[in-house]
C-alpha cells in the first residue's frame, strides 16, 4: 500500500499583504486663511574670535 501524500497548505500567505495606501490629505479650503508662518529662528550668536596661538614654552634658564 503506497503512503498517503498529504498536500501541505501553508496557513500564511506567500507574500505579506500590501499596506493600505496613505489617505490623501484634504485640499486646503480657498476661503480659509493660510496658517501663520512659523516665527523666524533666533539668529545664532556671533562666532567667538579665534583663540590666540599658545605662547612658546619658556626658555630654560641655562640659555641666558
From TrEMBL:
<protein>
    <submittedName>
        <fullName>Uncharacterized protein</fullName>
    </submittedName>
</protein>
<feature type="region of interest" description="Disordered">
    <location>
        <begin position="1"/>
        <end position="64"/>
    </location>
</feature>
<feature type="compositionally biased region" description="Pro residues">
    <location>
        <begin position="13"/>
        <end position="64"/>
    </location>
</feature>
<feature type="compositionally biased region" description="Low complexity">
    <location>
        <begin position="1"/>
        <end position="12"/>
    </location>
</feature>
